[in-house]
Amino acid sequence: MLDRVIEKLLALQECDAHRDNIQNQLERIPVEVARSEQSIQNELDAIEAAKIAVREMEVRRKNLDTEIKLAEEQTARYKTQQLQVKKNEEYRALQHEIDGMAGNISDLEDSEIGLMLEVDEATEKAKKEELERNKTIEDLKILISKREGHREDFEAELASAVAAVESAAAELDEKSMQVYQYVKMKAKRPPFVVSLEDQKCTGCYLRVPNEIKAEILKAKELVRCNNCSRILYCLPGHSLNS
Ligand SMILES: [Zn+2]
Questions:
Q1: Angle in degrees, 0-180, between the axes of helices 88-170 and 2-84, rounded to the nearest 10
Q2: Where in the chain is the domain with CATH 1.10.287?
Q3: Distance from the CA of 95 to the center of ligand 1, in angstroms?
Q4: Which of 45, 91, 144, 240 has the most crowded Cβ, counting Cβ within 10 A?
Q5: CATH number, span 20-170
Q6: pTM
């Protein structure tokens, strides 16, 4: 009689564990989806940052271009002035300015060439990285949609697991059910129905007193571990050896 009750309790415990497992997996899905969405956002931000960096370099290059044009215009003005001056020293002073501007223009042009190479390199690198990042984003999107698919599977599975728990519970008498619920509350972690082996509870692995072992062997009613409160039973055959 009690063996049947233990059997049913073990069945219920198994159904409970199955349901909890599905429930846990289901709860993990939104967390994992959010993590993937954050990763996608990080990739998008990195793509945007690379584009901004290239644009900033282009702005710097354009500014250099403007500076060169201004310097060239200034040089042209000096040259016009040079044609108009009468005194040699004025002419030389203007020539000095023109030479100075030529030096400036040469430096600016060097900087511009250097920057143009940098822009090309950065553009190339940004394009390559964007392709890789877009590939990562695609993979993450596939992962998200897979997880969304899993959610539907798990939801369906959970519904049948809950039904299984209910029908396993319906097999038990009210008193046994109360003991089981009490043990779940007290022990917190499964399993809640455990075997006694070598006079040790296999839930907490502590030795139980002789009286408890004797109670279990009598098999009159459900016996709980004096330490962890779990329901104890003897494995088939063990009770015969006592
Ligand atoms: Zn125990």
A1: 170
A2: 20-170
A3: 102
A4: 144
A5: 1.10.287
A6: 0.72
